[in-house]
């Protein structure tokens, strides 16, 4: 079960990173750093919660 959760977190993190990269690429001349910071904070918070749930 733990291996499945780790795989889900890994794939989820990769998917989130890809979406964040696509968003940044689409808005590159003026990415709106407040939104970028909010999205990054949400991403990090989600990963911390998932790590706590696994351990």
UniProtKB/TrEMBL annotation:
Keywords per UniProt: Membrane, Transmembrane, Transmembrane helix
Bilayer-crossing regions: 6-24
The protein's name: Lysine transporter LysE
